[in-house]
Amino acid sequence: MNILYLINYAGKGGSEKYVKLMAEYAKAQGGNIFFVYNETGLLVSQMEGITKNILCLNMKAPFDLKAAKSLAGYCTANKIDIIHTQFARENYIAILSKKLYANRTNIIHTCHINTPNNTLWRFMNKFFMNENFRTVAVCNSVRDLLIKNNYPADKVQLVYNGVYYRENFERPLKNSKPFAFVTLTRFSEEKGIFFLLESAKTLKERGFEFTLTIAGDGPLYEDAKKFVEQHNLLENISLPGYCDDTPSLLLNSDCFINSSSSEALSFAILEAMEGGLPIIATNVGGNPDIINEKTDCGILVPYGNRDKLANAMSHIIDNLENTLKMSKNARKAVKEIFNVDNSIKTAYNIYNEAVGR
């Protein structure tokens, strides 16, 4: 089976991690992997370790006819069976390559974001999205939104993101103080960086001993540094930038925080859970799929309410027995629900279904 992974920006986020996981699994199943991207980033070098079939294709917009024609030619020349797209731009380009340029490849689209469409886009979706063999939604809120955005409901399938589960992993006891919170994020508006910083400031004003490490980079990084300095939070808050060694960072922390205003199903949260960390997360997007009465692995808070987030942080610190229970439940949820073996196999089965195997 010849499988082409198509993505506009080949960076280092959760969507790129999903592409890498899918490509690795597909190759292990005997698939011949192709990778096409527009803007370069970390994923390109990662994919170079998986395949030599890599192409940089200029994709200016969703209706880039030149890109669609080039893609159709590439698919025909390489006898591509599956195009797996990740975002709207490349998905529309793949569909155009099929509708206009006789590209007979099956298109599978995975949607990683919660983005309501306007009236025009909902109309276009109704006209075009039936061309996808299947649209994968990574959480319930994404699935519901896709249907509202006029994706055909019978072609939308829920497949949770997943991470690798280590059977023999045991989280070491950490008795040292202060209590260590951590988040892995991008310093951009939708990630709620200043909501988190304000909440940490509130927690310090209440007299709690803690540290907070916010690992990542992005356009708001320098502004966040200024906030920490101006509010005398240097002893509490660390901003180390992008972190290559996330397992060590998670191992030396006690609780993971997600402060986003918009989220699908976060790989960062799942990786923290696999490492045995309880979770504090905003009640948005796919976060309630992860944290609920069934999983009992953390606390949901309303986005933007810094007192509620500070309350959740203080509860985690003050109730260590319950925090330990949530830690164990987090790993259980990954093993039983958000296990990469289940999610990737389910997604790969869609490939087999598409090519009639």
Sheet with the most strands?
7 strands, parallel
Strand tally: 13
H/E element order:
EHEHEHEHEHEHEEHEHEHEHEHEHHH
Indicate the proportion of strand residues.
15-25%
Radius of gyration: 21 Å
Structural class: alpha/beta
Mean pLDDT: 94
Q: Give the termini distance in whole angstroms.
A: 10 Å
SSE topology:
Elements: E1 2-9, H1 14-28, E2 32-39, H2 42-48, E3 54-56, H3 65-77, E4 82-85, H4 88-100, E5 106-111, H5 119-128, E6 134-137, H6 140-148, E7 156-158, E8 179-184, H7 193-205, E9 210-215, H8 221-230, E10 237-241, H9 246-251, E11 255-258, H10 267-274, E12 279-282, H11 287-290, E13 298-301, H12 306-318, H13 320-336, H14 340-354
Parallel strand pairs: 1-2, 1-4, 2-3, 4-5, 5-6, 6-7, 8-9, 8-11, 9-10, 11-12, 12-13
Helix pairs in contact: 1-14, 3-4, 7-12, 10-13
Task: From the structure above, extract its key features.
alpha/beta, 13 strands
What would you note in describing this structure?
It is a single chain. The protein has 357 residues and is of the alpha/beta class. It is 43% helix and 18% strand. It contains 14 helices and 13 strands. The protein has helices at 14-28, 42-48, 65-77, 88-100, 119-128, 140-148, 193-205, 221-230, 246-251, 267-274, 287-290, 306-318, 320-336, 340-354, and strands spanning 2-9, 32-39, 54-56, 82-85, 106-111, 134-137, 156-158, 179-184, 210-215, 237-241, 255-258, 279-282, 298-301. The strands form 2 sheets. A 7-stranded parallel sheet has the order 3-2-1-4-5-6-7, with helices on both faces. Helix 5 (119-128) links the parallel strand 5 (106-111) and strand 6. Helix 3 (65-77) packs across helix 4, helix 7 (193-205) packs across helix 12 (306-318) and helix 10 (267-274) packs across helix 13 (320-336). The longest helix has 17 residues, at 320-336. The radius of gyration is 21 Å and the shape is elongated. It starts with a strand and ends with a helix. The mean pLDDT is 94.
